Amino acid sequence: MHIKPFLLEEFFAKHEFTVKHLLCASDCEPLHLEEVVGFADTETASLWRDLRLSYTDPKGHPLLRAEIARLYKDVTADDVLVLAPEEGIFLTMLATLQTHDKIIVPVLAYQSLYEIAASLGCELLTWLPHENYAEAKWQFDVKYVCDLMEIHHPKMIVLNFPHNPTGALITRTELEQVVRVAAETGTMLFSDEMYRFLEMDTHMRLPSASDLSENAVSLCGLSKSFALPGLRIGWLTSRNAKLLKQIQQLRDYTTICPPAPSEILAIMALRAKGTILERNRSLIAGNKIFASHVFGVGWREPFGGSVAFIRYHGKEGAKIFCDGLLRSKGVLLAPSSVFGFGDSHFRVGLGRSGSKVGFELVADYIQENR
């Protein structure tokens, strides 16, 4: 298995911890330890105080799996496997895909959602978003992807809504159509739901694919919507017990079990989910106002998640613009080249506090270089 370098992660490794104004982060403003511990109730305070740094239940702490299951309609604690988010993608692909399998993937996406399958020798059937200039937003053509399934009968389709990096959403009716056609064509669903619960209009929130189909695996976690990327806690949910067991068996070769401190902190956070999610949606709403004003005609409205994907109209291209902005103002934006998607866009993060200063510096740079 030969896998290509992860362009976005290498980009962040180079810049994230030295740049003055990080304006392309995909997480929300990370919570401090004392904030999370402050959410503790009597039970979790006792668990934290008496914590032993031992190995943990390979599937995840029973109380944590119970809290996770409360985020779903039909998923139970037995349908949950706790692991690192990226690990969930990697192990699911290893457990289900073989050379020459066909898989439908969004190509403007987090690279591991398609690169792992490519490294396994799978045939990628691509599903690209459409940039709707008239309505200044990104859209996914559901009829197109359903036609792909009916023609090719792929092994898997990868979904990602709210979508990273565009913030695009499909409707519930469209998702149900995808689920129905997947069932008819024998296609497994892998649904990356890391940005779920950050929809600006909660009525647009989609049900989890794992609630809609027993042939689905859904990925979620605490890194994005819950502002806790440092815990490295995510989870897979699936009502396919055999598949979940296969993934867990592969996990014996990676991290084996979740970290004990992170699990207890995760329980605290999930029991305070209303407070955390309201805080994060408020941050995003405020930053959207700044960003839409600064980027003007290039702005593309995100309907969920903590990022937006902006069109750059300058002749020099997005990468040169972003490089110049970094040198001149110390502001980091992620050019579309690190997503393997041309040179006409960049990703902006909307979930961090203190971003107003960064947006003002971007506005100054644009004005100075007209």
What's the architecture of the largest domain, going by CATH? 3-Layer(aba) Sandwich
The low-pLDDT segments are: none
- Tell me the series of helices and strands, N- to C-terminal: HEHHHEHEHEEEHEHEHEEHHHEHEEEH
Number of strands: 14
Q: What is the name of the CATH superfamily of the largest domain?
A: Type I PLP-dependent aspartate aminotransferase-like (Major domain)
Q: How many structural domains in the coordinates?
A: 2
Basic shape: globular
CATH topology (level 3) name of the largest domain: Aspartate Aminotransferase, domain 2
- Estimate the helix proportion, in percent: 40-55%
**Structural classification:** alpha/beta
Indicate the proportion of strand residues: 15-25%
Strand order, main sheet: write it out.
2-10-9-8-7-3-4
Radius of gyration: 20 Å
Mean pLDDT: 97
Number of helices: 14
